[in-house]
Amino acid sequence: MAIVKLSKHDLLLVENPPPNELILGFDLDGILKKKDEFGVITPIEGGGGIGLPRYYVGLTENLTIPDGSINFVYGDLTIDGILTNYGKIVIINGALIENGTFNNFGTLQILAVPLI
Fold this sequence. Notes:
With about 120 residues, this protein is mainly β. Helices cover about 0% and strands about 40% of the residues. It has strands at about 25, 30-35, 40-45, 55, 60-65, 70-75, 75-80, 80-85, 90, 95-100, 100-105, 105-110. Strands 1-2-3 form a three-stranded antiparallel β-sheet, with no helix packed on it. Strands 4-7-10 form a three-stranded parallel β-sheet, with no helix packed on it. A hairpin with a 5-residue loop joins strand 2 and strand 3. The chain is elongated.
């Protein structure tokens, strides 16, 4: 078993990686992101294309996570609208707060990871 310790960092202040490498980490907003050799920082969405990771699904929103997508969220995921999951949702150091509808036909994983 491996233990991975994670912490939030200001990725703007983290040095750019060497060519052909990436830095992966949780930015100060709690979203898992990557930084390339040019300093470009982008969220890691898992290919879902629906705007996840996000912390809140609004009352009027009806979102579907397709099969084959992995979506990482740091902190609570609150659902007031409708979220249907066919892929995988990983909530790190948070909880699923269901005020709306959560249809889970995929995998939901909630992890408690110690911060360093």
